Amino acid sequence: MSKNEVANKVIVITGASSGLGEATARHLGSMGAKLVLAARRTDKLNAIIADLNSQNIEAIAVATDVTRRSDMDALAAKALEQFGQIDVWINNAGIMPLSPMSKLLVDEWDQMIDVNIKGVLYGIAAALPHFQTRDSGHFINISSVAARKVFAPIGTVYSATKFAVSAISEGLRAEVGPNIRTTVILPGTTRSELKHNSTDPETAASVQEFWKNFEIPAESVARAIAYAIEQPADVDINEIVLRPTAQEF
Ligand SMILES: NC(=O)c1ccc[n+]([C@@H]2O[C@H](COP(=O)([O-])OP(=O)(O)OC[C@H]3O[C@@H](n4cnc5c(N)ncnc54)[C@H](OP(=O)(O)O)[C@@H]3O)[C@@H](O)[C@H]2O)c1
Predict the structure, then answer these.
(1) Which of 20, 68, 117, 126 is least surrounded by Cβ atoms within 10 Å, i.e. has the fewest?
(2) Fold of 10-242
Protein backbone atom coordinates (compact mmCIF):
# COMPACT_ATOMS: atom_id res chain seq x y z
CA MET A 1 0.00 0.00 0.00
CA SER A 2 1.42 3.38 -0.95
CA LYS A 3 1.83 6.14 1.62
CA ASN A 4 -0.81 8.84 1.31
CA GLU A 5 -2.88 11.14 3.52
CA VAL A 6 -5.50 8.42 3.96
CA ALA A 7 -3.06 5.69 5.07
CA ASN A 8 -3.26 4.80 8.77
CA LYS A 9 -6.16 7.16 9.45
CA VAL A 10 -8.85 5.59 11.64
CA ILE A 11 -12.14 6.03 9.79
CA VAL A 12 -15.61 5.23 11.13
CA ILE A 13 -18.30 4.70 8.48
CA THR A 14 -22.00 4.32 9.31
CA GLY A 15 -24.18 2.45 6.85
CA ALA A 16 -21.18 0.43 5.67
CA SER A 17 -23.08 -2.80 4.94
CA SER A 18 -24.00 -1.82 1.36
CA GLY A 19 -23.93 0.86 -1.33
CA LEU A 20 -21.88 4.02 -0.83
CA GLY A 21 -20.70 3.02 2.65
CA GLU A 22 -19.39 -0.36 1.52
CA ALA A 23 -17.73 1.13 -1.58
CA THR A 24 -16.13 3.84 0.55
CA ALA A 25 -14.83 1.26 3.03
CA ARG A 26 -13.27 -0.75 0.22
CA HIS A 27 -11.72 2.31 -1.44
CA LEU A 28 -10.31 3.86 1.76
CA GLY A 29 -9.15 0.43 2.92
CA SER A 30 -7.21 -0.01 -0.33
CA MET A 31 -5.48 3.32 0.49
CA GLY A 32 -4.39 2.02 3.90
CA ALA A 33 -7.08 3.38 6.23
CA LYS A 34 -8.03 1.51 9.41
CA LEU A 35 -11.76 0.99 9.32
CA VAL A 36 -14.60 0.76 11.81
CA LEU A 37 -17.71 -0.29 9.92
CA ALA A 38 -21.17 0.22 11.41
CA ALA A 39 -24.65 -0.95 10.37
CA ARG A 40 -27.45 -3.17 11.64
CA ARG A 41 -26.90 -6.16 9.28
CA THR A 42 -23.89 -7.79 10.91
CA ASP A 43 -23.90 -10.73 8.47
CA LYS A 44 -23.19 -8.31 5.61
CA LEU A 45 -20.64 -6.33 7.65
CA ASN A 46 -18.81 -9.50 8.70
CA ALA A 47 -18.55 -10.70 5.09
CA ILE A 48 -17.06 -7.32 4.07
CA ILE A 49 -14.64 -7.39 7.04
CA ALA A 50 -13.49 -10.90 6.18
CA ASP A 51 -12.81 -9.82 2.60
CA LEU A 52 -10.93 -6.67 3.72
CA ASN A 53 -8.89 -8.58 6.31
CA SER A 54 -7.91 -11.12 3.62
CA GLN A 55 -6.33 -8.15 1.78
CA ASN A 56 -4.41 -7.16 4.95
CA ILE A 57 -6.74 -4.20 5.56
CA GLU A 58 -7.40 -3.56 9.26
CA ALA A 59 -11.16 -3.36 9.81
CA ILE A 60 -13.72 -4.20 12.47
CA ALA A 61 -17.51 -4.36 12.45
CA VAL A 62 -19.73 -2.81 15.10
CA ALA A 63 -23.46 -3.60 15.14
CA THR A 64 -25.05 -0.15 15.26
CA ASP A 65 -28.49 1.37 14.89
CA VAL A 66 -27.84 5.07 14.21
CA THR A 67 -31.24 6.01 15.64
CA ARG A 68 -30.03 4.95 19.10
CA ARG A 69 -27.71 7.44 20.71
CA SER A 70 -26.28 4.76 23.02
CA ASP A 71 -25.31 2.65 19.97
CA MET A 72 -23.46 5.61 18.46
CA ASP A 73 -21.61 6.32 21.69
CA ALA A 74 -20.70 2.61 21.89
CA LEU A 75 -19.47 2.78 18.27
CA ALA A 76 -17.08 5.61 19.13
CA ALA A 77 -15.93 3.78 22.27
CA LYS A 78 -15.26 0.59 20.30
CA ALA A 79 -13.24 2.51 17.68
CA LEU A 80 -11.15 4.13 20.43
CA GLU A 81 -10.66 0.80 22.23
CA GLN A 82 -9.50 -0.89 19.02
CA PHE A 83 -7.41 1.84 17.41
CA GLY A 84 -6.78 4.49 20.13
CA GLN A 85 -8.10 7.42 18.08
CA ILE A 86 -10.65 8.44 15.45
CA ASP A 87 -9.48 10.61 12.54
CA VAL A 88 -12.56 10.67 10.30
CA TRP A 89 -16.24 10.02 11.09
CA ILE A 90 -18.47 9.44 8.04
CA ASN A 91 -22.21 9.84 8.70
CA ASN A 92 -23.41 7.89 5.68
CA ALA A 93 -26.34 5.73 6.90
CA GLY A 94 -29.58 6.86 5.32
CA ILE A 95 -32.93 5.67 3.99
CA MET A 96 -35.12 6.92 1.14
CA PRO A 97 -38.69 5.57 1.29
CA LEU A 98 -40.25 7.95 -1.25
CA SER A 99 -43.97 8.73 -1.70
CA PRO A 100 -46.26 11.71 -2.35
CA MET A 101 -47.18 13.47 0.91
CA SER A 102 -50.88 12.84 0.20
CA LYS A 103 -50.30 9.10 0.83
CA LEU A 104 -49.62 9.99 4.48
CA LEU A 105 -46.91 7.37 5.04
CA VAL A 106 -46.16 9.16 8.28
CA ASP A 107 -44.27 6.25 9.85
CA GLU A 108 -41.79 6.48 6.95
CA TRP A 109 -41.48 10.27 7.47
CA ASP A 110 -40.61 9.50 11.10
CA GLN A 111 -38.05 6.85 10.08
CA MET A 112 -36.35 9.23 7.65
CA ILE A 113 -36.11 11.92 10.32
CA ASP A 114 -34.72 9.36 12.80
CA VAL A 115 -32.09 7.84 10.49
CA ASN A 116 -31.17 10.70 8.16
CA ILE A 117 -31.20 13.59 10.66
CA LYS A 118 -31.02 12.24 14.21
CA GLY A 119 -28.53 9.56 13.13
CA VAL A 120 -26.19 12.27 11.83
CA LEU A 121 -26.61 14.34 15.01
CA TYR A 122 -25.90 11.31 17.22
CA GLY A 123 -22.78 10.61 15.15
CA ILE A 124 -21.58 14.17 15.69
CA ALA A 125 -22.33 13.91 19.42
CA ALA A 126 -20.38 10.64 19.63
CA ALA A 127 -17.20 11.91 17.92
CA LEU A 128 -17.07 15.65 18.63
CA PRO A 129 -15.76 15.44 22.24
CA HIS A 130 -12.87 13.23 21.04
CA PHE A 131 -12.12 15.57 18.12
CA GLN A 132 -12.16 18.58 20.49
CA THR A 133 -9.83 16.85 22.96
CA ARG A 134 -7.37 16.09 20.15
CA ASP A 135 -8.06 19.42 18.40
CA SER A 136 -8.22 17.38 15.21
CA GLY A 137 -10.76 15.35 13.28
CA HIS A 138 -12.92 15.28 10.16
CA PHE A 139 -16.69 14.85 9.82
CA ILE A 140 -18.03 13.77 6.44
CA ASN A 141 -21.82 13.84 6.13
CA ILE A 142 -23.70 12.37 3.18
CA SER A 143 -26.45 14.68 1.95
CA SER A 144 -27.88 14.54 -1.61
CA VAL A 145 -28.64 16.64 -4.68
CA ALA A 146 -32.14 16.46 -3.15
CA ALA A 147 -30.77 19.08 -0.74
CA ARG A 148 -30.31 21.42 -3.71
CA LYS A 149 -33.78 21.05 -5.22
CA VAL A 150 -36.87 19.73 -3.47
CA PHE A 151 -37.55 16.25 -4.82
CA ALA A 152 -41.36 16.78 -5.14
CA PRO A 153 -43.76 15.13 -5.73
CA ILE A 154 -42.25 11.97 -4.19
CA GLY A 155 -39.25 13.07 -2.17
CA THR A 156 -40.35 16.12 -0.20
CA VAL A 157 -39.66 14.63 3.23
CA TYR A 158 -36.45 12.96 2.01
CA SER A 159 -35.33 16.35 0.67
CA ALA A 160 -36.19 17.96 4.01
CA THR A 161 -33.91 15.50 5.80
CA LYS A 162 -31.07 16.16 3.36
CA PHE A 163 -31.51 19.96 3.56
CA ALA A 164 -31.11 19.37 7.31
CA VAL A 165 -27.90 17.37 6.80
CA SER A 166 -26.48 20.20 4.67
CA ALA A 167 -27.52 22.83 7.24
CA ILE A 168 -26.05 20.83 10.14
CA SER A 169 -22.79 20.34 8.22
CA GLU A 170 -22.42 24.06 7.43
CA GLY A 171 -23.29 25.09 10.99
CA LEU A 172 -20.90 22.53 12.43
CA ARG A 173 -18.15 23.80 10.15
CA ALA A 174 -18.68 27.35 11.35
CA GLU A 175 -18.80 26.30 15.02
CA VAL A 176 -15.92 23.90 15.48
CA GLY A 177 -12.94 26.13 14.89
CA PRO A 178 -9.88 25.87 12.71
CA ASN A 179 -8.63 22.33 13.33
CA ILE A 180 -11.72 20.15 12.82
CA ARG A 181 -12.75 19.63 9.21
CA THR A 182 -16.34 19.26 7.97
CA THR A 183 -17.33 18.02 4.53
CA VAL A 184 -20.80 17.47 3.12
CA ILE A 185 -21.17 15.33 -0.01
CA LEU A 186 -24.22 15.76 -2.27
CA PRO A 187 -24.41 12.78 -4.64
CA GLY A 188 -26.82 12.34 -7.51
CA THR A 189 -28.23 9.00 -8.64
CA THR A 190 -25.86 6.29 -7.48
CA ARG A 191 -26.05 2.47 -7.59
CA SER A 192 -26.93 1.00 -4.18
CA GLU A 193 -29.84 -0.62 -2.34
CA LEU A 194 -31.49 2.78 -1.70
CA LYS A 195 -33.70 2.52 -4.81
CA HIS A 196 -35.49 -0.45 -3.18
CA ASN A 197 -36.66 1.53 -0.10
CA SER A 198 -40.02 2.83 -1.40
CA THR A 199 -43.13 0.89 -0.36
CA ASP A 200 -45.63 2.91 -2.42
CA PRO A 201 -45.92 0.78 -5.61
CA GLU A 202 -46.24 3.62 -8.15
CA THR A 203 -43.35 5.52 -6.61
CA ALA A 204 -41.23 2.38 -6.40
CA ALA A 205 -41.71 1.76 -10.15
CA SER A 206 -40.73 5.31 -11.09
CA VAL A 207 -37.68 5.23 -8.80
CA GLN A 208 -36.50 1.94 -10.35
CA GLU A 209 -36.88 3.41 -13.83
CA PHE A 210 -35.06 6.64 -12.92
CA TRP A 211 -32.16 4.85 -11.25
CA LYS A 212 -31.87 2.35 -14.13
CA ASN A 213 -31.45 5.24 -16.56
CA PHE A 214 -28.95 7.32 -14.60
CA GLU A 215 -27.11 5.50 -11.81
CA ILE A 216 -23.34 5.70 -11.57
CA PRO A 217 -21.20 3.30 -9.49
CA ALA A 218 -20.91 3.87 -5.73
CA GLU A 219 -17.13 4.11 -6.17
CA SER A 220 -17.73 7.56 -7.74
CA VAL A 221 -18.75 8.83 -4.30
CA ALA A 222 -15.98 6.88 -2.56
CA ARG A 223 -13.39 8.73 -4.67
CA ALA A 224 -14.91 12.12 -3.74
CA ILE A 225 -14.73 11.17 -0.05
CA ALA A 226 -11.09 10.10 -0.43
CA TYR A 227 -10.31 13.45 -2.12
CA ALA A 228 -11.69 15.35 0.88
CA ILE A 229 -9.70 13.22 3.34
CA GLU A 230 -6.40 13.34 1.47
CA GLN A 231 -6.07 17.14 1.50
CA PRO A 232 -3.46 18.64 3.83
CA ALA A 233 -4.77 19.30 7.36
CA ASP A 234 -5.20 23.04 6.74
CA VAL A 235 -7.48 22.49 3.73
CA ASP A 236 -11.16 21.78 4.39
CA ILE A 237 -13.18 20.62 1.40
CA ASN A 238 -16.54 21.90 2.64
CA GLU A 239 -18.92 20.62 -0.03
CA ILE A 240 -18.84 18.32 -3.04
CA VAL A 241 -21.77 17.93 -5.47
CA LEU A 242 -21.49 15.10 -7.97
CA ARG A 243 -24.00 13.74 -10.43
CA PRO A 244 -24.16 11.36 -13.35
CA THR A 245 -23.40 13.54 -16.39
CA ALA A 246 -26.79 12.51 -17.82
CA GLN A 247 -28.78 13.69 -14.78
CA GLU A 248 -30.40 17.13 -14.99
CA PHE A 249 -32.10 17.09 -11.52
N1 LIG B 1 -27.82 6.01 -3.89
C2 LIG B 1 -28.08 7.29 -4.23
O3 LIG B 1 -28.50 7.59 -5.35
C4 LIG B 1 -27.84 8.38 -3.22
C5 LIG B 1 -27.84 9.71 -3.68
C6 LIG B 1 -27.63 10.73 -2.74
C7 LIG B 1 -27.42 10.42 -1.43
N8 LIG B 1 -27.43 9.12 -1.01
C9 LIG B 1 -27.22 8.85 0.41
O10 LIG B 1 -26.15 7.93 0.54
C11 LIG B 1 -26.24 7.31 1.82
C12 LIG B 1 -25.99 5.81 1.66
O13 LIG B 1 -27.07 5.24 0.96
P14 LIG B 1 -26.88 4.17 -0.22
O15 LIG B 1 -27.33 4.82 -1.47
O16 LIG B 1 -25.56 3.56 -0.17
O17 LIG B 1 -28.04 3.11 0.16
P18 LIG B 1 -27.99 1.65 0.78
O19 LIG B 1 -27.23 0.72 -0.11
O20 LIG B 1 -29.42 1.32 1.07
O21 LIG B 1 -27.19 1.83 2.13
C22 LIG B 1 -27.77 2.41 3.27
C23 LIG B 1 -26.94 2.02 4.47
O24 LIG B 1 -27.52 2.65 5.62
C25 LIG B 1 -27.63 1.68 6.64
N26 LIG B 1 -28.72 1.99 7.56
C27 LIG B 1 -30.03 2.23 7.27
N28 LIG B 1 -30.71 2.43 8.42
C29 LIG B 1 -29.81 2.32 9.43
C30 LIG B 1 -29.90 2.41 10.84
N31 LIG B 1 -31.07 2.67 11.46
N32 LIG B 1 -28.78 2.23 11.58
C33 LIG B 1 -27.60 1.97 10.97
N34 LIG B 1 -27.45 1.87 9.65
C35 LIG B 1 -28.56 2.05 8.89
C36 LIG B 1 -27.83 0.36 5.93
O37 LIG B 1 -27.36 -0.70 6.75
P38 LIG B 1 -28.27 -1.72 7.57
O39 LIG B 1 -29.57 -1.87 6.84
O40 LIG B 1 -27.43 -2.98 7.58
O41 LIG B 1 -28.39 -1.11 8.94
C42 LIG B 1 -26.91 0.53 4.73
O43 LIG B 1 -25.60 0.15 5.06
C44 LIG B 1 -27.62 7.67 2.37
O45 LIG B 1 -27.48 8.71 3.33
C46 LIG B 1 -28.35 8.17 1.15
O47 LIG B 1 -29.40 9.07 1.47
C48 LIG B 1 -27.61 8.10 -1.88
Answers:
(1) 68
(2) Rossmann fold (3.40.50)
